[in-house]
Specification:
The chain is mostly helical and 256 residues long. It folds into 2 domains: 41 residues; 194 residues, Hypothetical protein af1432, CATH 1.10.3210. Helix 4 packs across helix 8, helix 8 crosses helix 9 and helix 9 crosses helix 10. Bound molecules: fe (ii) ion (FE2). The site of fe (ii) ion has 6 residues, from loops.
């Protein structure tokens, strides 16, 4: 082989080697890109969780658009329910179900006319009948979401009374789901202690006495005692803090 041919052959071999190295590097970077894509792809579980949380946010946003007070009330009721749920030793999953049920308990108020929902004075019998449809409407809104099936039921029964004289079905005692019994107490407590434009919220102690007076008729007596014990602790923990003002609904008034 001539000297010239030898040089050509060496150059060709070097090019071949370089191409091979280049191709291997490309393959490696493609593999890394695929691996990264797999790592960044959310699992079905993560997608479900995100869908669940976005659904909660959008339904609460709809409630806020309808009535700011009911939205704030729902957040406070959820806060009370989770506090008492912890006191009662519920698991993380149970606390989550209770929290979301409480957030959604009054969702059906979206379907109550403003003239009834926002009426500052006493409702007529006819208006009260309209208002009493809201737990069933909460159920109607939630029932088609399989992820909210338990929450739909807990919301539906949050106005049942322990003595069977509540609505919508007149369920009695432990036939009422436990989470609905808890929500009713938190709901009533917030209605008594939060400040409205037309009246100041009651002190916690007065609200506790009211809950005790109706324990066994309106409310589950076991849950009333758990609730009062839990709220007493919350009160001493949060005395004079912003959180307590938010819970009581006083913060707007104080800021004005
Ligand atoms: Fe309600």
């Amino acid at each position: 082989m001539s000297k010239k041919n030898n040089v050509i052959s060496l150059t060709a071999e070097k090019k071949k080697r370089d191409d091979k190295i280049k191709a291997e590097a490309q393959l490696q970077s493609q593999e890394m890109a695929v691996q990264k894509a797999i790592q960044n792809t959310p699992s079905i579980k993560e997608i479900k969780k995100e869908f669940f949380e976005l659904s909660i946010k959008s339904l609460l946003a709809a409630l806020k658009c309808k009535d700011d007070y009911t939205w704030g009330h729902s957040l406070r009721v959820a806060y009370f329910c989770v506090s008492v749920g912890k006191e009662m030793g519920f698991s993380t999953d149970e606390l989550y179900e209770l929290e979301v049920s409480a957030l959604f308990h009054d969702l059906g108020k979206i379907g109550v006319p403003d003239a009834v929902l926002k009426k500052p004075s006493r409702l007529t019998d006819e208006e009260f009948l309209e208002m009493k449809l809201h737990p069933s409407k909460s159920f109607e809104i939630l029932q088609d979401f399989p992820i909210f099936d338990k929450m739909a039921i807990n919301a539906k029964y949050h106005h049942e009374r322990f003595d069977g004289r509540g609505y919508p079905e007149g369920l009695k005692g432990e036939d009422i789901p436990l989470f609905s019994r808890i929500i009713l107490i938190a709901d009533t407590f917030d209605a008594m202690t939060s400040t409205r434009p037309y009246r100041k919220g009651l002190p916690f102690e007065v609200a506790f006495a009211e809950l005790r007076e109706f324990a066994g008729t309106q409310f589950d007596p076991m849950v009333v005692e758990k609730f009062i014990s839990c709220m007493t602790k919350e009160q001493s923990k949060n005395e004079s803090t912003f959180t307590l003002q938010v819970i009581r609904g006083d913060f707007k008034k104080d800021a004005a």
